[in-house]
Amino acid sequence: MAREFVLPEVSEGVTEADVSEILVAEGDSVEANQVVVEVETEKAVAPVEIPFAGTITKLHVAAGDTVAIGAVLLTVEPSEGGGDAKAAADAAPQKNEVPTAANTPAETAAPADADGARTGDYDTSADPFDGVRPEGSPTPMSDLPEGAYDVVVLGGGPGGYPAAFDAADRGMKVALIDENPKPGGVCLRVGCIPSKTLLHVAKLLHEVEEAEQWGVHFEKPTIDLAQLREFKSGVVNQLTGGVSQLGKGRGVEIIEGRGTLTGSNSLTIKGPKGDERELHFGRCIVAVGSQPAVPKIFDIGDDRVMDSTGALELKDVPEKFLVVGGGYIGLEMGSVYAALGSKVTVVEMTDGLLPGADRDLVKPLQKRIEASFDRVLMNTKVESLKATDAGIDATLSSADGETTETFDRVLIAIGRRPNGKTCGVETTKAEVDDRGFVTVNRRMETADPNILAIGDVAGEPMLAHKATREAKIAVETIAGEDAVFDNRGIPAVVFTDPELAWVGLTETEAKRDGIKVTVSKFPWAASGRAQTIDRTEGLTKLICDPDTGRVLGVGIVGANAGELIAEGTLAVEMGAVAADLAETIHAHPTLSETLMESGEAVFGQATHFFKKKR
Ligand SMILES: Cc1cc2nc3c(=O)[nH]c(=O)nc-3n(C[C@H](O)[C@H](O)[C@H](O)COP(=O)(O)OP(=O)(O)OC[C@H]3O[C@@H](n4cnc5c(N)ncnc54)[C@H](O)[C@@H]3O)c2cc1C
């Protein structure tokens, strides 16, 4: 099967080169490591060698062409065995070669593109409409009243505001509506950003404690809660202010008010002073997000029972703090309060924290949490809450029976509810499911040709970066492009200490679905960098295709796992093979070397960790 040979990197920082000479012709046989083309850059003239043998079936460039690094130069029918030292491994895509249908296990493949398009091969066989086909065509703007907007974005979170910006950048007339005076959504105001600001402080407090073991002694820290709240609010204000400025700079009309759709081309907006106006649009992107789910039995009308928004207000540091739910929000907020001095109890109904993550990754995190929290109770249910003068009485039930305990504050962190039923979507042809998700296809379209939906309201996982990616797809769809959400991985990060992150296929999913995988693990005790920071409890693992070495998933637990996962995400997204990670030079000493060594261990041995092969 034919393979495509692309222009490799010729020197650092160079993104394109001029083809000065073509040394082969269509029909020629070439040897492995034969120079086939010479290219010229500002820095040098460079001979380009093909790493495998074969017969050239197509030349894609001519002398004088300017080609981008990664652009296809030749299509080659490889000779039997490939003719080079690595031929045996060439069944899997290698660096410097665009994965094609011939060399990857995917059903179909897109060619490399020198016009700035992605180079990973994507499965184009799946139905982009995914069961949802808009009924009819979008309303032409000429049919709408004067002053109508090309695009109205309802909700200004990490889905909504990037969508509004992108649409405006493309020359569309755009309004961005949010009921909150500070755009940025849950993420900027009461989610990702304030929680990570507080978690940074929690981490610092841990490190101060740990420094004792290294011979560095600090006084016990005192916490000025008012100043801490100010720091957190300052970060939020800085970022929400930035969103407003960026929007205005692009010509997006930012409207404060609560929007309710009144049909496929119109909505009403109720402003902060109760004033109402109507607005018409060609397309509306619904990006109204989600809200904390608080079941009725916990809604007892006492502000000592909080959702995540209340917990982020940090009114005080309760002595006894109950967290209901062992998901990422519960563990992150529990970590903040534990670091500030609360005795934290986490109650989780199932038998494990962080459903979705592989258990071997959760283990080191759970161990540390058990040491810093008062208690972590699994298979336990909170049956009821009752407010008393002394606190909140919580009745907990488990296999051992029922107990009632008093807590100073309680955080309900059992999930989030999408806002699809709260903004008039039912007046359009778009559908909303029982949970409140607007039903969309992979182009972010609904059954109504004028209505699209993105972010938390458009489905799981409810994560800011997923919302932002969907924003781009929605605007591309509106712009008439061949857009489809075909990303292979959406990274998930839990910002506890240690952090836990994963992307793509997990080992648990592979087992559940009967997918054959090779799992390679590199324990951080073998990492020089982990030793230097005294954080050796971490683990990096790759989940690979056993035949090709293709990286299908990556999981990391350990310090900075949330940053490290980016390399794994790129590997999964681009269809990299383990050799790509293993043979890429990683700076030493860094934690990123654990990805390189995990790559080495897929088919061989990691340099710093020896494991007897069975
Ligand atoms: C404590 C916490 C921590 C989190 N941490 C992370 C994290 O670390 N990483 C991560 O990826 N995700 C995190 N999330 C989730 C993340 O915040 C959401 O996935 C993300 O904000 C969803 O973006 P969105 O644009 O879909 O909606 P949202 O951010 O919810 O924005 C929707 C906006 O629409 C407005 N709105 C709703 N209805 C109307 C209406 N009818 N009219 C006008 N305006 C309306 C809302 O006021 C809101 O501003 C966290 C969430 C919480 C609660």
UniProtKB/TrEMBL annotation:
The gene is sthA_1. Residues 99-114 have a biased composition (Low complexity). Its EC number is 1.8.1.4. Binds 1 FAD per subunit. Its cofactor is (R)-lipoate; FAD. Residues 80-143 are annotated as: Disordered. This is Dihydrolipoyl dehydrogenase. It catalyses: N(6)-[(R)-dihydrolipoyl]-L-lysyl-[protein] + NAD(+) = N(6)-[(R)-lipoyl]-L-lysyl-[protein] + NADH + H(+). Pfam families: Biotin_lipoyl, Pyr_redox_2, Pyr_redox_dim. NCBIfam families: lipoamide_DH. Keywords: Disulfide bond, FAD, Flavoprotein, Lipoyl, NAD, Oxidoreductase, Redox-active center.
